[in-house]
Design goal:
about 550 residues, alpha+beta, nine-stranded antiparallel sheet, globular
Length: about 550
């Protein structure tokens, strides 16, 4: 016998119970079936200073959920004949550098432009996360770039700068702000009366939920961005308005069916493989059922919006605490409504600790320049420092959450080496090889000290020995303590720092990489004599790699 509506709603309340106190932030949830609202409720506090509870009418900054509205605005302009998705972005952004390859509007929409990530560029330029960042600031750092992460169209890598540029294009082509254009063409026609793009962070937002970061056990700190950039983020909205949007994606109430279908159609790689990303929307499956949606993160806000189009179910979870995991909450709500139609989750299998220990180590990706460290803790394999262990599915394959899979195998070109392949948001895996180079020490570490400069972000960096550790410093940022992982390569947090050498073996620069920025090169500018690498040792990274 199927559950009654009251029983389902009680199960939903139980899912959100940990966030339904009077001393914590929380969430609003909205659920619709076949376009009809089934349940909405708020849990926890919208404002901890004034004891204001969250309600379904609370307004949240939704982070990257904003992207689908920016993409839809571009699609409307294309439908009007004012742009083409195949246009070179420099048609509308002539100040962007000529990198020798064409970047199109479609590349921006589908995260295949190869552009470097705006937030990481500003970090290298000395900007702090709580600085007031504007659209002009983002465009300025973009115009200084002389390289890409990869050739446009050859890979897919999530990128916020592309959506900032799309917002600028909407404004230049339409002659209206993104806020005004989306209000006129999207929000008002759909009755989304509580939705708007914010282009002035000092503006009043009625019923706004404050964002919070956890500070200490039981304590919270305000985390509301003081920024005036938008396109990849910047949308304020409610669960009710986003349910109206999901209904529009099912019934094409604005723009016509062809446009709405295109929004929900995955882009493809040059080899014809679906990337799983449409017009600002992830096109995925969850336990065997097709889904369309997006999540969002900005300051203390955490959000998720997901629909099961074939089953007529839409779920929106908007939260204002940085430790809340709305995607997991949304999935659990979906299981309440559709669990009997979902495929079973593959059970984990036991693996001997000796077999697991053989997989631990440091792995590096030659493509992305990322480093992954894997450890055994409490008898289980896990990424270093992670709270959750990898679950074995057998044959060297492990599950990380519901979406990601890690597969360990012998290297294709070297059977004595170990490879790790990671599948996460995109169809192509990231491939890593276990690092076997010796760790640098003593005089080798000292040889890396000096000053380095990146002109593209107008910043000079100092590498010093501090308390026996190689340390990287630059103005307005916390220093990076560099931890050796083998050869000339080091890591610190999310960053990979690799020192490069001239043909003589002398250190002549370094590169910095993070998930969405690859091998940003800094030239060595000090004149100190640097000992060459001893003869007969390998060079891990060469200039310009």
């Amino acid at each position: 016998m199927s559950a009654t509506p009251a029983e389902r709603h009680a199960q939903v309340d139980a899912i959100f119970a940990p966030w339904n106190g009077a001393t914590t932030p929380g969430c609003a949830v909205g659920i619709a079936r076949d376009g009809v609202v089934d349940y909405t409720r708020g849990y926890g506090m919208s404002n901890l200073e004034y004891d204001v509870p969250i309600t379904p009418q609370s307004v949240f900054l939704v982070g990257s959920i904003s992207k689908q509205f920016t993409a839809f605005a571009i699609a409307l302009l294309a439908q009007d004949g004012r742009v083409s998705l195949d246009d070179d972005i420099r048609t509308y952004l002539p100040e962007m550098p000529d990198v020798g390859q064409t970047i199109t509007l479609s590349h921006l929409i589908h995260h295949s432009s190869g552009l470097r990530e705006q937030g990481q560029l500003l970090y290298l330029a000395g900007w702090r996360s709580d600085d007031m960042m504007t659209q002009a600031d983002m465009l300025s750092v973009a115009t200084q770039q002389r390289g890409l992460n990869f050739a446009p169209g050859t890979e897919t890598l999530y990128n916020n700068l592309g959506y900032t540029l799309l917002a600028v294009i909407v404004e230049r082509v339409s002659g209206k702000s993104l806020a005004a254009f989306t209000d006129e063409r999207i929000f008002r026609p759909l009755g989304m009366n509580d939705s708007h793009f914010q282009d002035d962070h000092t503006g009043i937002v009625r019923r706004r939920a404050a964002g919070y970061q956890a500070h200490a056990e039981g304590e919270w700190r305000i985390s509301i961005p003081a920024s005036d950039y938008y396109g990849p983020t910047g949308l304020f909205t409610t669960v009710g308005d986003l349910l109206k949007w999901h209904d529009h994606l099912s019934h094409a109430r604005v723009g016509g069916q062809a446009l709405v279908t295109a929004m929900q159609t995955s882009a493809e790689t040059r080899d014809g493989v679906a990337t799983g990303y449409g017009g600002g929307l992830f096109i995925r499956t969850y336990r065997g059922l097709r889904t369309v949606g997006h999540d969002g993160v900005h300051a203390g806000y955490r959000t998720d919006s997901m629909a099961f189009p074939d089953q007529g179910l839409a779920i929106v979870t908007l939260c204002n605490g940085a430790t809340i995991l709305p995607a997991e909450l949304t999935q659990r709500v979906a299981e309440v409504y559709l669990g009997d139609r979902m495929t079973a989750t593959a059970p984990a299998v036991d693996v001997a600790e000796a077999d697991v220990s053989a997989l631990a180590g440091i792995y590096w990706s030659a493509l992305t320049d990322e480093v992954v460290r894997v450890e055994v803790k409490d008898g289980a394999l896990r990424p270093l420092g992670a709270s959750s262990a990898l679950e074995s599915l057998g044959n060297g394959t492990f599950r990380m959450g519901q979406a990601a899979q890690w597969h360990f195998r012998a290297a294709v070109d070297r059977q004595d080496a170990r490879e790790l392949q990671i599948w996460d948001a995109w169809p192509a895996p990231r491939t890593f090889t276990r690092v076997t180079e010796p760790m640098p020490a003593g005089p080798t570490l000292t040889s890396f000290t000096g000053e380095y400069r990146i002109d593209e972000v107008d910043m000079t960096y100092e590498v010093v020995m501090a308390a026996g550790k190689l340390t990287m410093r630059w103005p307005r940022q916390s220093e990076l303590v560099l931890e050796a992982v083998g050869g000339d390569r080091f890591i610190s947090g999310a960053w990979t720092v690799t020192f490069t050498r001239a043909a003589s073996g002398a250190v002549d620069g370094l590169t910095m990489s993070a998930r969405r920025l690859r091998r940003m090169r800094a030239e060595r500018i000090t004149a100190a004599a640097i000992p060459p690498r001893p003869a007969g040792t390998s060079v891990s990274v060469s200039r310009g790699r």
